[in-house]
Structure formats: structure tokens, C-alpha cells
Amino acid sequence: MRVIANKVVIITSIKTLLVDPSLCTGCRTCEMACSLYHEGVCSPTLSRVRIIKYEALGRSYPAVCAQCSKPQCLSACPHEAIEYSGRSGALTIREERCTGCRSCLIACPQIGFHPEKKVAFKCDLCGGEPQCARFCPSGAIIFSAVDEFQMARLRMAADKACQIIQHPAQV
User: How far is CA 127 from the centre of its chain?
Assistant: First the structure.
């Protein structure tokens, strides 16, 4: 449950997008799947997920909306264009209310701006079935319950610790 601007919002979905940057290959499949789903075209500019490339380090990082519990974009919008979706629990931007003032862009780096429609856009979790996670070939982006993800990470750390204890010379 979240309380935003004196409104109680009950979140029905406990799933969120989770990122493991060590698995990202920088292929940008997530960007293409996202923009194709939302806009009908493959365009990184229109994607709600962005791949940030660190060329010097040979690394890429998928930047996704965190669906914050205290979202700055929501409080920054003077036109109440940002609201919670009851279906997915995600924050969404209602285009018909958005005036293109860009207050939300200043408040949050994960908000995009549509160059033709002149409105802001952000991840809406694709209504509960995020296409970025569905099509990510490396598993760098997953859609999972946070507690399941944390448990899997703890298991991986425990497995690694056991390997070090059992075979210290091989690690």
C-alpha cells in the first residue's frame, strides 16, 4: 500500500523490473521491444528503457524506472498527469493530461519526452507484462517479485562461498 498526495493506493502487483548489469550485453533488444510495443516502431529514442553504454569499460547498463515508493515525478507534475495504474501497480502518464511542461523530466531521469506527440512518457510495465524483460536474451532484465530476486542472489552468494571453502585454490 502507498499513500500519495493524501490518496491510499493499493498495489496489487508485487513484481517489478530488476536489473543485473553484469549480464547486459548492450544488444539493445529491450529498447527495440519496448518502443515496438508502445509506439509501433523500433526506436531507442521512444523506448521507456535505456541502455547506457560505458565504452571505455566495455560495459552496458539497462536503466529502467524503479517505480519508486515516493516518486518525484508524481509530485513534480502540476497537471496530475501521472497516476498509479490499478492493473499493474505502475506509475503511468496520461497523455491527455500531459501539457509537455517537462517538470517530471527534471524530477526523474527515467522519464522520456516524445518528440512528435510533445508529451512525457515512462515505463508502465507494459500493463503487467514488460516486453523488455520478456525479450532480454541475456536475462539482465527480469520481471520478478523483489523477495524472490533477493533470495536467488543470496543463494548465489552462498554457492560462491561454499565453492571458495571447498576449493580455495580454484577460485
Answer: 13
Are residues 100 and 112 in contact, defined by beta-carbon separation less than 8 angstroms?
no
Contact present, 73 and 67 (Cβ < 8 Å):
no
C-alpha cell at 57: 569499460
Q: Is 123 or 153 the better-scoring residue by pLDDT?
A: 123
Burial per residue of 107-137, b for 16 or more beta-carbon CB atoms within 10 angstroms, e otherwise:
bbebbbebeeeebbbbbbbbeeebbbbebbe
What end-to-end distance do the CA atoms of the chain give, in Å?
Answer: 44
* Cα–Cα nearest to 110, from 52, 50, 38, 60: 50
| Confidence (pLDDT) at 105 | 95
Say whether pLDDT at 13 is over 70. no
What is the per-residue DSSP string for 27-50? --HHHHHHHHHHHSS--GGG-SSE
